[in-house]
Design a protein that fits this description.
- It is a single chain.
- With 139 residues, this protein is α+β, with helices and mostly antiparallel strands.
- The protein has 2 domains: 35 residues; 84 residues, OB fold (Dihydrolipoamide Acetyltransferase, E2P).
- It contains 3 helices and 7 strands; from the N terminus they run αβαββββββα.
- The longest helix has 31 residues.
Length: 139
C-alpha cells in the first residue's frame, strides 16, 4: 500500500483542487449577477415576455427626437428597423446627441417604453471594428 507521505500529498492535492474549483465557481457566480445584456429595439420588440430585470438598449438617437424638460430627457433609440421611447432623469453625457450612438441602461416598461437609469454615449463615432468594416465593404 501507499506510505503516509504519499497519502498526505494526495490529500493536499485534493484540497487544493477543491479550493480552486470552489473559488472559480464563486467568482463566476458573482459575475453572473452583474452581467447586463445589450439588446437592440428589434430584439426587444420580439421578446415573448417582459421581466423586471435590468437591461441595456442600444442604437442610434433618432433625429429630432430629444425633448428636455427640467432634469428629464425623452428621446427615441432606433436601429433603423424599430424604435423604443426612452425616458431618463438626470444629466446626460456631453457626447449625447441626435444621430449618435447611445446605450441606455435601465428597465423595460413595455415593448415601446424604456425607463433609463444610466446613459452611455459612444465616445468616437469614427471608430469601426475591423470585422464590421469588412462586412460593410462586402455589401
Amino acid at each position: 500500500m501507499y506510505g503516509r507521505k504519499v497519502k498526505l500529498r494526495f490529500l493536499f492535492i485534493i484540497i487544493i483542487l477543491i479550493t480552486l474549483i470552489l473559488t472559480t465557481f464563486m467568482i463566476l457566480k458573482s459575475l453572473e449577477e452583474n452581467v447586463v445584456y445589450f439588446q437592440s429595439p428589434t430584439e426587444i420588440k420580439s421578446l415573448s415576455e417582459i421581466d423586471n430585470s435590468k437591461i441595456r438598449v442600444g442604437g442610434m438617437v433618432k433625429k429630432n427626437s430629444i425633448s428636455i424638460n427640467s432634469n428629464e430627457v425623452n428621446f427615441i433609440i432606433t436601429d433603423f428597423k424599430n424604435e423604443i421611447n426612452v425616458i431618463y432623469k438626470g444629466a446626460v453625457p456631453n457626447l449625447f446627441a441626435e444621430g449618435k450612438g447611445v446605450v441606455a441602461e435601465g428597465f423595460l416598461k413595455d415593448r415601446n417604453f424604456f425607463s433609463a437609469t444610466k446613459i452611455l454615449a459612444k465616445h468616437d463615432e469614427n471608430y469601426m471594428p475591423r470585422e464590421v468594416k469588412e462586412a460593410l465593404e462586402d455589401k
